[in-house]
Amino acid sequence: PKLEYLLTETRGRVALVTLHRPKALNALCNGLFVELNQVLKDFDNNKDIGSIVITGSERAFAAGADIKEMKDRQFIENYVEDFLGHWTQITKIRKPIIAAVNGFALGGGCELAMMCDIIYAGDKAVFGQPEIKLGTIPGAGGTQRLVKAVGKSKAMEMCLTGSVNLTAQEAEAAGLVSKVYPAEQVLDEAIKTASKIANLSTPVVQMVKDAINQSFEMPLQAGLTFERRLFHSTFASNDQKEGMGAFAEKRKPNFTNN
Ligand code: HXC
User: Fold this and answer.
1) Which of 115, 89, 118 lies closest to 195 in space, CA to CA?
2) Ligand 1 centre from 27 Cα, in Å?
3) What are phi and psi of 8, to 5 degrees?
4) Is residue 127 within 6 Å of ligand 1 at its C-beta?
5) What is the ipTM for the molecules in this complex?
6) Least buried of 18, 61, 133, 140, by fewest C-beta within 10 Å?
């Protein structure tokens, strides 16, 4: 089916998804998110894909949820329909997702980036949670994931003022972003990293993502036990035999994802 708000392509085992609603700075309207969930699910189920990169334009990764689309909504319909609840489907994607962020990552745009597994930022990127200025609050992790990424004081300052944003450099220093590159390089670098990941054992890669995500949900002992069991289970894979065997034989491993 033809996509209205996204561009998709594959580069080897990497899937690239570009948010493409240029006239609205990639504001995340319902149609865009429905498409995003669908293409991510398709790539997640595609054996030829090992990792995913999400990017926007040079001006905007995404300037937030679509304000014009939501401004007249009412509480009861929001509650009954679980308005924007479907955004969390991204967190169910099991292959790693790298966000390559240039320009504005505001509100839901910042939250979308935070639902990805790794964030690379272009040097002009801006991260912020301006919802309070619209008379509302973040609704997809801005008061939760942001705290875990940058700590309480910065998260409070960003969400309470709506106007204190993080530059790419500040976001890197705070730990929200793992690397900053010149704007025109960030996508290539994201694809390079995604490609490294995609050429490792995909099931084992998925176990790493699963285990790290469990660290946000579980008490330490339960998380460590979960990790140990997954570690044990990798020994049932051909890829563990291949990886360790190749090391012992001083050659490159050839993973077959089983
Ligand atoms: C709808 C948006 C939009 C948005 C930009 N546009 N952001 N439309 N929803 N979030 C549209 C503008 O209306 C305008 O359309 C066009 O994109 C270009 O934007 P400008 O404002 O003209 O650009 P500029 O002057 O460069 O300012 C850029 C900006 C500003 C600072 C990013 O657009 C802005 O403040 N946007 C809103 C940011 C925001 O508040 N995000 C949080 C949304 S709430 P026209 O047709 O006029 O040309 C949210 C809740 C998440 O995200 C909840 C998740 C569950």
Assistant:
1) 118
2) 7
3) -130, 145
4) no
5) 0.98
6) 133
**Going by CA atoms, what residue is nearest to atom 35 of ligand 1?**
63
Atom of ligand 1 nearest to the CA of 59: 26
In Å, how far from its chain's centre is CA 54?
7
> Of 63, 100, 98, nearest to 183 (Cα)?
100
- To test ligand 1's pocket by mutation, which of 19, 25, 57 has the most ligand atoms within 8 angstroms of CB? 25
Chain segment 202-246, per-residue pLDDT in tens: 999 999 999 999 999 999 999 999 999 999 999 999 999 999 999
Q: Which residues contact 128 (CB under 8 A, 6 or more apart)?
A: 104, 105, 106, 107, 110, 158, 162, 163, 164, 165, 166
Nearest atom (ligand 1) to Cα of 24: 17
